[in-house]
Amino acid sequence: MRNLLTLLIVGAVGFVLVGMYVAPSQPELRGWYLRNACEHLDKVSPQICAPMRQAEVTRPI
Questions:
Q1: Are the CB atoms for 53 and 25 separated by under 8 Å?
Q2: pTM for this structure?
Q3: What letter does residue 47 receive in the DSSP assignment?
């Protein structure tokens, strides 16, 4: 049971870290996070999705 709880916690932390550091530089992943995950992540902290929103605004055309 403890291993399952540890796996869930590590997965959640990994999900947030990918959203903060990897997704801003990957357009498809950034779009998925902005469409599906940011509405929930913003309830935890608005700073999680801020790098993705900034990258979306400043992306080159």
A1: no
A2: 0.81
A3: T
